[in-house]
Amino acid sequence: MLPAVVVVNITVDRAGQLTDVQVQRSRDQGASEVALASLRRSGPLPAPDGLGPQHADLMTFSETFLFGERYRFQIRTLAGPQRAGL
Question: 22 Cβ partners below 8 Å, 6+ apart?
Fold first, then answer.
């Protein structure tokens, strides 16, 4: 079904600028490189909601990249259910 799954930790500042991107889990170096490169090429992300004065100036979250053949991917939060045989 999915040749590679990459979980990435993403840290953004209050303006949505990437400050750090690291692979948390992967078994495929090529897929990891594709995921990291796509994040680094992205523009600023939307500013994080809920970072009030009592919170840190940075927000870290994880995102999962689901890779099909030839390193085409879809981010997990946007992917539909996976079914065998399709």
Answer: 8, 9
Count CB-CB contacts under 10 A for residue 34. 18
Q: Does the residue 32 lie in any domain?
A: yes
Q: Could you tell me the residue range of the domain that residue 71 belongs to? A: 4-78
pTM (2 decimals)? 0.73
DSSP 48: P
pLDDT at 67: 85
| R_g (Cα) of the chain, nearest Å | 14
Q: What is the pLDDT of residues 52-61, one digit of tens each?
A: 666 678 888 8
Distances (CA, A) of 62 to 1, 55, 69: 22, 18, 23
